[in-house]
Design brief:
The protein has three helices and six strands. By secondary structure, it is α+β, with helices and mostly antiparallel strands. The protein has one domain: Alpha-Beta Plaits (2-Layer Sandwich), CATH 3.30.70.20. The strands form two sheets. A four-stranded antiparallel β-sheet has the order 1-2-3-6. Strands 4-5 form a two-stranded antiparallel sheet. A hairpin with a 2-residue loop joins strand 2 and strand 3. The protein is globular. The two termini are about 15 Å apart. The N terminus is likely disordered. The structure holds iron/sulfur cluster (SF4) (2 copies).
Length: about 100
């Protein structure tokens, strides 16, 4: 259901819900759990956002510690937890974790 509030929530989703997760990874709430990103491990290959079938991810404008553009979550609610991003990342920098009690669930 898309309400006006829902649209507003979606617009602020990325900014408001990215948090620090375990191992210093960034963490986003997705509908079935969490998406984690070790931003400074990323080599900027682009596989994760290229292969995400739902366009959940996009290349961030900022640089990580290695000077690469990491991915960022731009539409968390669209994530279907297919784990393609996790499977294609050569650096094991991005992964999903199912959680029944996740805020987005
Ligand atoms: S789990 Fe699938 S839908 Fe979710 S961000 Fe990764 S590739 Fe995209
Ligand atoms: S697949 Fe991994 S290394 Fe490549 S851009 Fe995504 S997070 Fe970075």
């Amino acid at each position: 259901m898309t309400t006006k509030k829902g649209v507003e929530d979606r617009a602020t989703h990325h900014a408001s819900r990215v948090t620090e997760g375990k191992e210093g990874a960034k963490r986003w709430v997705v509908p079935k759990g969490y998406l984690y990103l070790l931003e400074d491990t990323c080599k900027g290959c682009g596989f994760c956002y290229t292969f995400c079938p739902k366009k959940v991810l996009a290349q961030a404008e900022h640089f990580n510690a290695k000077g690469y553009h990491p991915p960022e979550v731009v539409d968390a609610e669209a994530c279907v937890m297919c784990r393609f991003c996790e499977a294609v990342c050569p650096e094991f920098a991005i992964w999903l974790e199912e959680a029944e009690d996740a805020e987005g669930g």
